[in-house]
Specification:
globular; single chain; Rossmann fold; alpha/beta; seven-stranded mixed beta sheet
Length: 243
C-alpha cells in the first residue's frame, strides 16, 4: 500500500510498518533532521505522567516514546497494530508491556488509563474519529489525552517548502536509509492529506473531550494536541462518521 488516499485497512498498514520496523527509529531521526527527539520531549512533558499512573501509548512502534514516559514511574502499555514493530519493541524495551492491537478497537475496558497518547499514528488509522472515541472510552474520568501529529505550517512560505520536502527530498532520503522506501512515500502522502490543526481540534471535541488546545512545534510542521475527559465521566456525544 503506497497511496494515502486508499482505505487504510489495518492489516495493510501494519504490513507496511512490519517492513520498516528494524530501521524505523534511525530513519525517522534522519528524516526529521533530529527534531524527532525534541517532539518526543515535548510530548512526554505534556503527558506529565506521575508515579503509579497508567498510561496507554498507542502507535507506540518500537517503544522509544513509551520508555521515555516510563521514566516518570508510570506504568506504560505500548500498543501498536504492527506485529513487526512490537517484536522489535519487546527486544529493545523489555520492561515495557507491548500489545498488538487496533486503535479503533482498543482491547481494554472502560476508564482504565490516567493518560492516553498517540504520536504520528492517528493519520494512519482508517477511522480516526472512531479511534478518538475509543481513547475517550478507556480514559478514566479526568484523564488526559495528548496527540502529537504532523500538521500544517501556518506560514505560506514554509508550507510551500515543506510540501516540496515531502514530495521530493523525503522519498530520496528514504531510498538510502530505509529498507522499504515506498512505505515512506505513503507516509509523505498521508502527511499532505492530513487536516490542519483546527480540524483535528474539532474532532477531539466531537469525541467528548474538554479543555481542548494545541500548540505548534517546529513552526507548525508538527502540532501537539491536548484534551481532558470530563471529571464526571459524562457521556460521549455522537460524533459524525469518519470521512
Amino acid at each position: 500500500m503506497t497511496k494515502a488516499d486508499m482505505n487504510k485497512q489495518p492489516n495493510e498498514v501494519a504490513s507496511m510498518f512490519d517492513g520498516v520496523a528494524a530501521h524505523y527509529d534511525v530513519t525517522n531521526d534522519i528524516l526529521s533532521a533530529g527534531n524527532a527527539k525534541l517532539w518526543r520531549i515535548a510530548t512526554v512533558k505534556a503527558i506529565d505522567a506521575k508515579p503509579g499512573e497508567r498510561v496507554l501509548d498507542i502507535a507506540a512502534g518500537t517503544g522509544t516514546s513509551s520508555a521515555a514516559i516510563a521514566k516518570s514511574g508510570a506504568e506504560v502499555v505500548a500498543l501498536d497494530f504492527s506485529a513487526g514493530m512490537v517484536e522489535v519493541g519487546r527486544k529493545r524495551q523489555p520492561a515495557i508491556e507491548f500489545i498488538v492491537g487496533d486503535a479503533e478497537k482498543l482491547p481494554f475496558g472502560d476508564d482504565e488509563f490516567d493518560a492516553v497518547t498517540i504520536s504520528f499514528g492517528l493519520r494512519n488509522v482508517n477511522k480516526p474519529k472512531t479511534a478518538l472515541a475509543e481513547m475517550f472510552r478507556v480514559l478514566k474520568p479526568g484523564g488526559r489525552l495528548v496527540i502529537c501529529e504532523f500538521s500544517t505550517p501556518p506560514m505560506a512560505g514554509l508550507r510551500f517548502g515543506y510540501q516540496a520536502y515531502l514530495k521530493h527530498v523525503l522519498p530520496a532520503i528514504s531510498k538510502i536509509t530505509s529498507s522499504n522506501s515506498p512505505a515512506y512515500s505513503y507516509l509523505a502522502e498521508s502527511i499532505e492529506k492530513w487536516p490542519e490543526q483546527q480540524v483535528l481540534s474539532q474532532w477531539i471535541r466531537g469525541a467528548g473531550f474538554t479543555r481542548v488546545a494545541h500548540r505548534n512545534l517546529t513552526a507548525g510542521i508538527v502540532a501537539l494536541h491536548r484534551g481532558r475527559k470530563p471529571a464526571s465521566g459524562g457521556r460521549r456525544p455522537s460524533s459524525a462518521p469518519d470521512a
